[in-house]
Design goal:
The chain has 221 residues and is of the alpha/beta class. The protein has a domain at 80-217. Helices cover 17% and strands 34% of the residues. The chain is built from two helices and 23 strands. It has helices spanning 2-20, 45-63; strands at residues 80-82, 86-87, 91-93, 95-97, 101-103, 108-112, 115-116, 120-122, 127-131, 134-135, 139-142, 146-150, 153-154, 158-161, 165-169, 172-173, 177-180, 186-189, 192-193, 197-200, 205-208, 211-212, 216-217. The strands form three sheets. It has an eight-stranded parallel sheet with strand order 1-4-7-10-13-16-19-22, with no helix packed on it. Strands 2-5-8-11-14-17-20-23 form an eight-stranded parallel sheet, with no helix packed on it. A seven-stranded parallel sheet has the order 3-6-9-12-15-18-21, with no helix packed on it. Residues 21-77 are annotated as: Disordered.
């Protein structure tokens, strides 16, 4: 009889326990993710950043001085060696002539920074300019149209006749200067002449600042 009572009570106990057990709480629904858009930069912010970079680069450039640029040096002029005589009818420079320099008729010889062991021989109707040139012999010519000697040296004489114009400027002449029958201007300026200075039948003569060791037979000098 006791067993029957237990069997009757078991369903009741199961119901009561089921009633006392709490129901499980429902799981919360997932919250949807909201995508956030990037916040745009303020107007001009990029330009300000670039300006800051440029300013920083300028400060660095000022802090580091630039090295001075190297300038190329000009090569020294090459002297041309000429054995024997040389015919000059144009512009020549840096010549070393072992013989004479001949200027033909109608030619205009311009010789710069050169050395001539012999003489300068000027044909009738020629013209010549000798600048910073040393002549081992003499300068000779007849009916020379125009002759200019400047800043050079003549170890012999300067002998000219029946020509046009002559200029000797700052020239050292170890010998004499002889000019005759010149119809044009003859100018002797700041020269050193060890020998004589002679002028014949040459009306237009001008001289200034010369040092003449020999005799002067030239009106106006």
């Amino acid at each position: 009889m006791l067993r029957a009572a237990v069997l009757l009570l078991s369903p009741l106990l199961a119901l009561s326990l089921a009633a006392c057990t709490p129901e499980p709480e429902p799981e919360p629904e997932p919250v949807p993710q909201v995508e956030t858009a990037p916040i745009p930069a303020a107007p001009g912010a990029a330009d300000q950043g670039k300006a800051a970079e440029v300013e920083e680069a300028a400060d660095v450039a000022e802090a580091e001085p630039l090295a001075p640029a190297k300038t190329a040096e000009a090569p020294a002029p090459v002297t041309a060696e000429v054995e024997g005589d040389l015919t000059c009818s144009g512009v020549l420079a840096h010549q070393s002539v072992s013989g004479n320099v001949e200027v033909p008729t109608g030619a205009n010889c311009q010789l710069f920074d050169s050395e001539v062991d012999g003489s300068i021989l000027l044909a009738p109707g020629s013209a010549a300019t000798l600048s910073a040139t040393q002549v081992g012999g003499s300068v000779q010519g007849e009916q020379v149209y125009d002759l200019v000697l400047e800043e050079g040296r003549v170890k012999g004489n300067v002998e000219l006749s029946a020509g046009g114009t002559v200029q000797l400027n700052n020239v050292t002449v170890d010998g004499s200067v002889e000019v005759s029958d010149y119809q044009g201007a003859v100018r002797l300026i700041d020269n050193e002449i060890a020998g004589d200075v002679e002028c014949q039948d040459t009306p237009d003569i001008g001289a200034e600042g010369n040092q003449i060791t020999g005799r002067i037979r030239c009106p106006g000098v």
